[in-house]
TrEMBL record:
Name of one Pfam family that matches: Fer4_7
Residue ranges of domain 4Fe-4S ferredoxin-type in the record: 266-295, 301-328
Keywords from the UniProt entry: Iron, Iron-sulfur, Metal-binding
Residue ranges that the Swiss-Prot or TrEMBL entry lists as coiled coil: none
Keyword Amino-acid biosynthesis on entry: no
Gene3D superfamilies associated with the record: 3.30.70.20, NADP-dependent oxidoreductase domain (3.20.20.100)
Gene Ontology MF term list: iron-sulfur cluster binding; metal ion binding; oxidoreductase activity
Organism whose genome encodes this protein: Desulfitobacterium dichloroeliminans (strain LMG P-21439 / DCA1)
Protein name (record): Putative oxidoreductase of aldo/keto reductase family
Membrane spanning residue stretches: none
């Protein structure tokens, strides 16, 4: 039996002016109600375990609806940093989002706050009011660092030129799965540009929403070996997943038992047959993976999913008024 040795978690600096953090950021979507993999209490336990192992920052978003879960896990960990995000458009909306985060996370200062899922210079322009409020919050100390998250190449390029931007959280993986406006090489070019501008970059969807999880070594190695990317947010919902990822990145031997414990189980988006075809999920899906299809001659339509495009984020389930969508 292998001796259990706590992994040595690598520390990285986010961009030229960002903080030093662990290479791995805990992606809390995996323990949130949005994905429903674990209970509230189980999620707290997994997150606290990750902090005990040396992960020192957490990625969340207003849409994940898990501020209380994170706040409970952070008791006794005042130095752990938190990233949150919102879809706010106006300054007034952003001010409310920031206050909800501060109250919900029980923190006077939010370490990072990002505009969620920006797509281009045009969408950034449309969120100008919210961005100006983020700049104001950074100036008056409510937030330390500001930026964007995105699945789009154009947004990475535009974000790198956005006044006051500190960090970009892009979708990137070794097959380019989930990029909405081009291919992997174009995304890597954009990330190089942003990195040369001094922007801090930490990757999302490293495992392509689960599509690449059967070869985790390849997925993790790709991100670590891309010079323009400093860190990665990994969604983890079990202690075994935390152990596997951290031990692999630390170059430690991994037992067969641990490998077996994290063997990837195929997951998919389930759409119930009582779907009314309202189309809200289609409008929400950032990947364009959902569409409406006619199911009978009477014109009744229901949502269908293109599994090759779905990254299993679960955002669609949140807007469904009839609770038809679930990741299983």
């Amino acid at each position: 039996m292998l001796k259990e040795v706590k992994p040595n978690v690598r520390q990285v600096k986010l961009g030229w002016w960002g903080p030093e953090v662990s290479e791995v950021c805990f992606g809390s979507l995996a323990i949130s109600p949005l994905q429903g993999r674990v209970t509230f209490a189980e999620g707290v336990q997994v997150l606290r375990y990750a902090l005990e192992q040396g992960i020192n920052w957490i990625d969340t978003a207003e849409i994940y609806d898990n501020y209380p879960q994170i706040a409970q896990a952070l008791q006794g960990y005042p130095d752990v940093k938190v990233v949150s995000k919102s879809y706010a458009v106006t300054a007034e909306e952003m001010a409310k989002c920031l206050e909800r985060a501060r109250v919900g996370l029980n923190r006077d200062v939010i370490d990072f706050f990002l505009l969620h899922e920006q797509e281009s210079a045009l969408t950034l322009k449309g969120h100008q009011g919210a961005w100006e409020e983020l700049q104001k919050a950074k100036a008056d100390g409510r937030v330390r660092y500001i930026g964007i998250s995105t699945h789009a190449i154009d947004a990475v390029k535009a974000g790198a030129l956005q006044p006051g931007l500190d960090v970009i959280h892009p979708l990137v993986n070794h097959q380019g799965l989930g990029i909405i406006d081009g291919g992997l090489e174009e995304m890597l070019d954009a990330l190089r540009f942003a990195s040369e501008m001094g922007i801090g970059i930490y990757a999302m969807k490293v495992f392509g929403g689960g599509h690449l999880a059967s070869h985790p070594h390849t997925a993790l190695d790709f991100i670590r070996n891309t010079p323009s990317i400093q860190g990665m947010a990994l969604g983890m919902s079990s202690k075994e997943e935390v152990d596997f990822n951290l031990r692999y990145l630390a170059g430690q031997e991994i037992s067969e038992d641990l490998k077996a414990a994290v063997t990837y189980r195929e997951r998919k988006l389930y759409i119930a047959d009582w779907c009314q075809g309202c189309g809200r999920c289609c409008e929400t899906c950032p990947q364009g993976a959902l569409s409406l299809e006619e199911i009978d001659e009477g014109g009744q339509v229901q949502a269908i999913v293109d599994s090759s495009q779905c990254v299993l984020c679960g955002y669609c389930g949140r807007v469904c008024p009839h609770f038809c969508l679930k990741i299983v």
